[in-house]
User: Fold these one by one.
Assistant:
Number 1:
Amino acid sequence: MTGPRDCDVIIVGGGPAGSTLAWRLVRAGLDVVVIDKKTFPRDKVCAGWVTPAVVDALALDLDAYRRGRVLQEIRAFRISMLEGPEVRTRHDAVVSYGIRRCEFDHYLLERSGAALEPGETVRDLERKGGRWVVNDRLRAPLLVGAGGHFCPVARRLGADLGGSERVVAAQEVEFPMDERQRAACTIRGDTPELFFCRDLQGYAWVFRKGDFLNIGLGREDNHRLAEHVAAFVEFLQARGRIPVDLPGRFKGHAYLLHTHAGREVLGEGALLIGDAAGLAYPRSGEGIRPAVESALLAADTILEAGGDYGPGRLDAYARRLQERFGRRADGRPANPLMPPGIRTRIGERLLGTHWFARRVVVDRWFLHQHEPPLATVREA
Ligand SMILES: Cc1cc2nc3c(=O)[nH]c(=O)nc-3n(C[C@H](O)[C@H](O)[C@H](O)COP(=O)(O)OP(=O)(O)OC[C@H]3O[C@@H](n4cnc5c(N)ncnc54)[C@H](O)[C@@H]3O)c2cc1C
């Protein structure tokens, strides 16, 4: 009988975090296996909006990427509080891109050059003789959890999955529009529309990517999420913005904002990246950039460790995360002392001013233009 296959690093999860780390480590000469419960291309509940920082960090060749895939350039936004006045912003350059996650994640995973174990759910994680053994099939001195919010490695490192964590819950639908639906849709591809909930606990969006339409809503308070989503769809339909027939059902998913997450990111010969570590930006919920950047910070640490992942050898990763994303688990609720009615009135007034919508909501909250590109230690 043959034993488990040996490799240098096992990465659980082939989303943007896992594939980015695999790409960097494979280029540095490590034997990396990525294991994912799904077979790619697979879908992921997501609006599919990526900022230019992601394109830079991944050194994406946009001309190569757009061949046969959706790459929607974004140059403007429409911002409002639901039922409130709207502000339109316009930008001189392309400020973001719309991608389809089934295409984007597949492209990155194939490009990584790692050995892939698709369609394999990680059920069993054992620590034996200073190495990790996964599902009795793979063995390595280093295990990386990149399995998203419900990552089994995060659970193994002590995360209370589905328990006490304060999550953002979101629902989304994405579908190709037929000719009749395209004619009934007044959403412009280069102009995503954002609608803040009146209690400021979340926001909804409608985003057209080529002939695909993506509609969704996410909230920090997940009570009656489906009702919020249904009301939003009705709101858009009543204004003749989207087709009256939406095929497919809304799909839900949860994730952690960095300021709310308290997950331990390091274990014995193990670390977490991306949503498994709970890194999404507060305000926008953007998680792809933190997933990619945490993977690059992990790659620096892993390559510096030079194959010895004993006590203290991975600590630099936690420090780098903190330097990049700030302190964690200090998640005070927004405006705790302000009565909801006043919060709504102030929010509506601010969101209705061009300066606030452009400089704060778009530039700061959604584009993170104040964050410089990530400087990694080792360029592979
Ligand atoms: C509705 C919604 C909209 C969003 N919109 C945006 C957006 O527009 N832009 C943005 O930047 N972020 C957005 N996000 C956040 C973003 O989707 C995540 O932050 C991002 O996908 C994190 O990437 P990841 O690689 O860490 O995890 P994931 O992309 O979740 O990948 C994890 C992988 O692990 C695999 N896996 C899980 N469990 C196991 C297991 N037991 N065994 C094997 N494999 C396993 C999964 O199959 C999956 O392929 C959105 C999130 C939601 C819910």
Number 2:
Amino acid sequence: MEIQENKNIYVGVQTVRTPNINDFYMEIKSYKNILVFAEVCDGKVCENSLELIGEANRLKAMRNNDSIVIAALLGFGVKSYASELFGYGADKVVVFDDQKLENYRSDLYGEALAQIVKSYHPEIVLVGATALGSELAPTVAAKLKTGLAAHCTALKILENGQFTQVVPAFGGKVLGDIYIPNHRPQIASIKGGITKKLDFAPKDGVVEDFTCELTGFDRMKVVKVEKEHENRKSLNEADCIVVGGFGIGSKENWAKLEELASLLGGANGCTRPVLDAGWIDNEKAMIGTSGVAVRPKAYIGIGVSGAAHHTCGIKDSGLIISINKDENAPIFACSDYKVIGDYKKIVDALIEELKA
Ligand SMILES: Cc1cc2nc3c(=O)[nH]c(=O)nc-3n(C[C@H](O)[C@H](O)[C@H](O)COP(=O)(O)OP(=O)(O)OC[C@H]3O[C@@H](n4cnc5c(N)ncnc54)[C@H](O)[C@@H]3O)c2cc1C
């Protein structure tokens, strides 16, 4: 599905401050390889990180310059996860195993990852845009004084070799191509579900231990770790997702969408304005650049206009059905079936039919 033609937007272009231009280009050229931050969560490597290793392999193939994919594995007692990272496509795993990294802290993880990047000189660094990654990526970018494109919806390598990060801009109306021409590494964060992991194939690779002094902020201490329990069906497990947009009009109307999803054995998703308005309390239901990307067999969008911020999260859905009263709503451009009309009558009729 093509959302919209890309517009070239030059965001964050920085000036060259190096006194000697040749030194500058030598310095830029000394950066090679693609490094993926391998996030460990609840005793396993995050799906998002495995997907990024797959994406790094796709970029590596386009780079055609003997680049390798390096996974940076940080934590305490995490070395055993290296074999999984190799199986999903890492060529080398750098392990920073330290008790200080047992629990995530942005100061310590920021220092650790920045030091790994300084030592390995990767040209590109990919970080999952999870809650942790969304904090860690800018922390590392600031420490290294380099550029970061957050919540990318696609990554490309142009014919001239330019690494390009695609991010929706101007309220999702255009997709901007972001370049970081003068600084290295080029850091990108991407949500889970947007890129694809490779099929697992056991293989050997090089494991390198890394260590450095971690000072962090003295005044910070982890006192207690509380895990959020999630009982709801995850959007990634559901074959059918009924998504409510701002067009549903009110919190009271949300119940209709829940009934429809339950009759279809599916789950409910939403757009950002619905979450912001508090019509739904499940943050994990938001689909798009700031939420999750989904791949259900069927997506039913109700009162959803179709901003790129949202549609980038549904592009791999099997069937896209949209209900909207505006026949010119952008969502119809990427829909397999379009139903034009007031959703209330349509959803009521659907519920009645399903019950019968
Ligand atoms: C940095 C940034 C990140 C963002 N991230 C996300 C994100 O992750 N996910 C996301 O969804 N958005 C995100 N947004 C917001 C995004 O740009 C859009 O504003 C949002 O997706 C629009 O939501 P909507 O379609 O529900 O609402 P609207 O754009 O208000 O559309 C409502 C639609 O409902 C239709 N409608 C109204 N009444 C009825 C009716 N009775 N029957 C049928 N149809 C009806 C209207 O015709 C309209 O098309 C982000 C924005 C920014 C700036």
